[in-house]
Amino acid sequence: MNDSFGTRLRARLDECGPLCVGIDPSPALLHAWGLDDSPAGLERFSRTVVDAVSDVAAVVKPQSAFFERWGSRGIAVLERTIADLREAGTLVLLDVKRGDIDSTMAAYAEAYLDRGSPLAVDAVTLSPYLGFGSLEGAIMSAVANDAGVFVLARTSNPEAAPLQRLVADQVLAGAAAANAGHTPFGPVGVVMGATLPALEHSLADLNGPILAPGLGAQGASPADVARLFGTVRHTVVPSVSRAVLADPKRLRARTLSYRDECAAQLARRPAAQK
Ligand SMILES: O=C(O)c1cc(=O)[nH]c(=O)n1[C@@H]1O[C@H](COP(=O)(O)O)[C@@H](O)[C@H]1O
């Protein structure tokens, strides 16, 4: 039997410390790196990130849209990037933010979670806008494949607050129900921005990982991560993209510094959940 996503994520967080690094090959970053905005440029960018961070970041998160811009050639680079990351032994979280009716979700689950798919990853981001129940099949597929999902709850962008404030507790309750009884924690993570002014929701019963994007470019600091998620410090995965990707020469050093600073800040907080 294979290890569950929760078991593998626990092991990576214990081994590497708390950080997810994004692979976001935007036109601006490709330009800053002196690379062409082309499939070859995407490939060089992605390989460089994989080589620099995959042994020190618990999770690496390619953003699908930056590859999709180049159609089938971009998707081919994404496939190779996923294969490189898996070979390097890091966990791959593909940021695709999918959400649809149950029959269509089954196709998304087949694309990203089914072990046999060329785009199979350890976890994907999902949107709950069609109702948390519409994600049930994808969650079952994740469990069957020892994979995970991260459902958007309170995203890092400020304009999300008025809408998501109304429904985040439903998302958290759905995730907690799906995670009940799993050890060390369940397959359903949630996305909660590190940029949130205040938490406003209880994470005490979640029993799942929390992806916390927004470090650096969106203004959040490791101290913010600790302020918001200190009580669930063993399950929070702070995420950073542009602030470490800005300069290829400093990619590894910046990754190490964000990781170590997040670990140090979180260690200062009381832990309520292991
Ligand atoms: O799901 C995500 O990864 C995500 C959720 C969220 O709430 N906010 C957020 O910025 N992201 C992603 O995180 C990346 C941005 O990271 P920065 O470049 O560090 O700001 C992008 O790929 C976003 O799509």
From TrEMBL:
Pathway it works in: Pyrimidine metabolism; UMP biosynthesis via de novo pathway; UMP from orotate: step 2/2
Organism in which the protein naturally occurs: Nonomuraea marmarensis
Protein name: Orotidine-5'-phosphate decarboxylase
SUPFAM superfamilies tied to this protein: Ribulose-phoshate binding barrel (SSF51366)
Record family assignment: Belongs to the OMP decarboxylase family. Type 2 subfamily.
Highest taxon in the source lineage: Bacteria
Catalysed conversion reaction: orotidine 5'-phosphate + H(+) = UMP + CO2
EC number of this enzyme: 4.1.1.23
InterPro entries membership: Aldolase_TIM, OMPdecase_AS, OMPdecase_type-2, OMPdeCOase_dom, RibuloseP-bd_barrel
Any one GO MF annotation of this record: orotidine-5'-phosphate decarboxylase activity
Enzyme class: lyase
Keyword line: Decarboxylase, Lyase, Pyrimidine biosynthesis
Domain called Orotidine 5'-phosphate decarboxylase: residue spans: 18-256
